[in-house]
């Protein structure tokens, strides 16, 4: 079981093996954490993403990290919140599962996640963080992973408190 660490701050500054991008289906950039990652990575990232052919909601794709201090970027696409009637919970868990599986294919030791779908995509924070923690616990219970550290990176202290509470409850 990897160590799960809640980290307050900017995911683009973390020198981990991989950071996860909360992207959209085009993988061609956007606002929020996606915009921040593309700005910090520089134009090489967009050029590579243009060749990735987009990404399905709940899936994940790998790129290099260019000017970022991490080694790789794993792009995933969270669900837009539609009230919970469109399979959002399973799609959100799938983002975490597929990102972790890609990291394991590369034998990575550390990965950092933003709070996928918690911004523009409007997922209620308590529900989204519950799915994130559930997905992480399930993944490590079922897979022999190379990952040692999983960072849950948030800019909002309320999200940090929420994660803290959920991790305590899930022990
Ligand atoms: N580091 C860590 N977390 C951040 C950062 C950062 N630099 N910047 C924002 N956040 P969002 P989504 C937090 O909207 O809801 C984009 O336009 C933010 O406060 O980035 O999955 C894409 O192209 C929030 O808690 O992602 C898609 O179109 C969390 O990251 C769409 O937004 C996620 O917010 C995806 O929406």
UniProtKB/TrEMBL annotation:
Q: Which GO terms describe its molecular function?
A: O-acetyl-ADP-ribose deacetylase activity
The superkingdom listed in its UniProt entry is: Bacteria
* Location of the Macro domain: 1-171
Under InterPro entries, the record lists: Macro_dom, Macro_dom-like
Pfam families attached to this UniProt entry: Macro
- Descriptive protein name: O-acetyl-ADP-ribose deacetylase
Q: Which organism is it from?
A: Dasania phycosphaerae
């Amino acid at each position: 079981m990897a160590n799960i660490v809640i980290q307050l701050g900017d995911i683009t500054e973390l020198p981990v093996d991989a950071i996860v991008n909360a992207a959209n289906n085009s993988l061609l950039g956007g606002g929020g954490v996606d915009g921040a990652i593309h700005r910090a990575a520089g134009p090489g990232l967009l050029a590579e993403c243009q060749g990735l052919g987009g990404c399905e909601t709940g899936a994940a794709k790998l790129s290099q990290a260019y000017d970022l201090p991490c080694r790789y970027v794993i792009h995933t696409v969270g669900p837009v919140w539609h009230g919970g009637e469109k399979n959002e919970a399973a799609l959100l868990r799938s983002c975490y599962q597929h990102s972790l599986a890609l990291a394991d294919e590369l034998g990575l030791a550390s990965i950092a996640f933003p709070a996928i779908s918690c911004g523009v995509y409007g997922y209620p924070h308590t529900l989204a963080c519950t799915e994130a923690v559930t997905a992480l616990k399930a993944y490590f219970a079922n897979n022999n992973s190379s990952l040692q550290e999983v960072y849950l990176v948030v800019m909002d202290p309320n999200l940090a408190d929420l994660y803290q509470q959920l991790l305590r409850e899930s022990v």
